[in-house]
Amino acid sequence: VIATSPEDQDRIETLVRALGGAFGGGLDTVEIVRAPGRVNLMGDHTDYNDGFVLPGAIDLDTWIVYRPRPDGLVRLRSRQSPVACEVRIDQLSLDPARPAQGWADYVAGVAWSLREDGLPIRGLDGIVDSKIPPGAGLSSSAALELAAALALLDGPAGLEAPSLALLAQRAERDYVGVDCGVMDQFAAAAGLAGQAILLDCRSLESRYVTLPDGLRVVVADTGSARELRVSAYNERRAECGRAVALLAERVPSVASLRDLDEATLRRHRRLLPASIARRADHVVSENARVLATVTALEAGDLDELGRIFAASHESLRSAYEVSSPALDAMVDIAVAVPGVVGARMTGAGFGGCIVCLVRIEAVPALAATIEREYPRRTGLQPRVYSVALADGAGRVGRPRR
Ligand code: ADP
Ligand code: MG
Q1: CA 181 to CA 197: how far, in whole Å?
Q2: Is pTM, for the whole model, over 0.85?
Q3: Whose CA is nearest to atom 8 of ligand 1?
Q4: Which pLDDT tens digits describe the chain residue by residue (401 residues)?
């Protein structure tokens, strides 16, 4: 295998050694796949409303170093978990009574999903290794799914990013049981170095958007509790559905909040209870902000980017009501650092991460300021990640897919 960097070469050697240690066997048939995490620059709570998002794959990734097996047995060890994964691909089913198997469910779900599409899969022995912190909002789950899909596929399937993303999303939604949109999997599949991806979550049409030179993306984890996250997420989804149902009585062309513009919403706002109207305000304005962000990125208009990021955070805080004191504090701290272009919460909310666009030379000051000020204000420990936008899932040491 040809490594692209000395660091990759070290990682390959370590993982190949771990593979031999766990399963024995020779090295001649070892294969390696990788899939990245992702960050979303703009567009939160728009994906399940058929709207726009602007994610990018990042240079923190998950690898699987493996040897194919002739039978249908999948045996994986993860360097991030003491629990082994063992799956028989001829015994997969959606039986609701089947016990949850932790991270093995992501792998089994992908195998199940590949089979649903009639794609050829095979067994393997492998080692999983990830640089993506799990549960930090950088989508380690989609990375695991995409890497597993590439490893399980028997032969070059030539699958395009949208197909790969959809089958991985189906694995997480229907098999693992997490009601997720398609953004994470799409970004992990379609990423391109230095580019964000403008994705239409309804049509899955996408295009790349170049990040201006000299800008870096910084993600900072608030490290705050997220008990409310799942219940509030489900509540917001239901509220959006309610808004659509109420509006569709008068405006039949509205099949989702994606179909509303600001003027139409203003005209029919009185059909909605006040809190539901605020949810719609957020989704409609956030979709517009995704498109405005693309324009500003392509024009290199950093002041405008700052205004859009501030408006997005304010909308998530006051209209969608999914921010938290910890997220607000971290955004406050970040935007006060010279060289920070914009900062806002991202993800489901109630804890989780903020995302910042930062001039490259200001990254160390931003990290130091968050690490100093945030614990002082909240009593919580932050984790700060400076990331580059990177390529999507593929094989290591070979042409992509
Ligand atoms: P996120 O996708 O934001 O990181 P999720 O809760 O969606 O958080 O997914 C995290 C889960 O994905 C973990 O709890 C684990 O089950 C699985 N996972 C991701 N990466 C790995 C890994 N390297 N080894 C084992 N499990 C992993
Ligand atoms: Mg996830």
Answers
A1: 15
A2: yes
A3: 135
A4: 445 688 899 999 999 999 999 999 777 789 999 999 999 999 999 999 999 999 999 999 999 999 999 999 999 999 999 999 999 998 898 887 888 889 999 999 999 999 999 999 999 999 999 999 888 889 999 999 999 999 999 876 678 999 999 999 999 999 999 888 899 999 999 999 999 999 999 999 999 999 999 999 999 999 986 677 778 888 999 999 999 999 999 999 999 999 999 999 999 999 999 999 999 999 999 999 999 999 999 999 999 999 999 999 999 999 999 999 999 999 999 999 999 999 999 998 999 999 999 999 999 999 999 999 999 999 999 999 999 999 999 999 754 44
Does ligand 1 come within 6 angstroms of the Cβ of 62? Answer: yes
133 within ligand 1 shell (Cβ under 6 A): no
Q: Is the CB of 128 under 6 A from ligand 1?
A: yes
Q: Which of 184, 259, 328, 391 is catalytic?
A: 184
Q: Are 37 and 390 in contact (CB under 8 A)?
A: no
Q: Is 125 a catalytic residue?
A: no
Q: Which atom of ligand 1 is nearest to the CA of 85?
A: 25
CA gap 372, 378 in Å, rounded = 11
Q: Which atom of ligand 1 is nearest to the CA of 178?
A: 7
Q: How many residues can be counted in the chain?
A: 401
**What gap in Å lies between CA 296 and CA 304, rounded to an integer?**
6
- E strands, 214-327, are 215-221
Instruction: Name the residue among 154, 128, 17, 11 with its Cα closest to residue 76.
Output: 128
Handedness of CA 388, 393, 398, 400 (dihedral sign): negative
Ligand 1 mean position, distance from CA 206 (Å): 26
Q: Ligand 1: does its nearest atom lie under 6 Å from the Cβ of 185?
A: no
**Ligand 1 pocket check: which of 34, 127, 129, 144 to mutate, most ligand atoms within 8 Å of Cβ?**
144
CA distance 122 to 149: 11
Q: Is 78 in the pocket of ligand 1 (CB under 6 A)?
A: yes
The bridge status of strand 206-210 relative to strand 73-78 is unpaired
